[in-house]
């Protein structure tokens, strides 16, 4: 269905970022966990893309040069930082 391996890898990294965003939001004590999940997906795709563009070594490959580790760290970081400001 998706013929481009880079797009498929970014979808997989984004899905992993949803979970990382949920964890980051819970740790930060955010009240809007669904928003933190979405932010985690965006952060995961962003960090994985920046890691690929800068030529960083791929630690756990999602394919096409994208890394799950960079995605997870990016999703966790974005959700945690924004979640700290979204406390009840």
What characteristics describe this protein?
two-stranded antiparallel sheet, mainly alpha, elongated, 88 residues
Explain how this protein is built.
With 88 residues, the protein is mostly helical. It has one domain (5-84). Helices cover 70% and strands 6% of the residues. It contains 3 helices and 2 strands. The protein has helices spanning 5-28, 33-53, 68-84; strands spanning 61-63, 66-67. It has a two-stranded antiparallel sheet with strand order 1-2. The longest helix is centred in the first third of the chain and has 24 residues, at 5-28. It is elongated and about 40 Å long. The termini are far apart.
Radius of gyration: 13 Å
Structural class: mainly alpha
The shape, in one word, is elongated
Strand order of the largest sheet: 1-2
What is the overall pLDDT average? 95
SSE string, helix = H, strand = E? HHEEH
What fraction strand?
5-15%
Total helical segments: 3
Total strand count, please?
A: 2
Report the end-to-end length measured between terminal Cα atoms: 42 Å
User: Which bin fits the share of residues in helices?
Assistant: over 70%
Outline the low-pLDDT stretches: none
For the sheet with most strands, the description reads:
2 strands, antiparallel
The structural domain count equals 1
């Amino acid at each position: 269905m998706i013929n481009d391996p880079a797009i498929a890898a970014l979808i997989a990294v984004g899905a992993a970022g949803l979970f990382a965003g949920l964890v980051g939001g819970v740790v930060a004590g955010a009240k809007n966990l669904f928003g933190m999940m979405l932010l985690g997906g965006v952060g995961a795709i962003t960090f994985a893309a920046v890691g690929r563009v800068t030529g960083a070594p791929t630690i756990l490959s999602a394919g096409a040069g994208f890394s799950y580790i960079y995605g997870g760290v990016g999703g966790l970081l974005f959700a945690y930082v924004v979640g700290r400001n979204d406390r009840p």
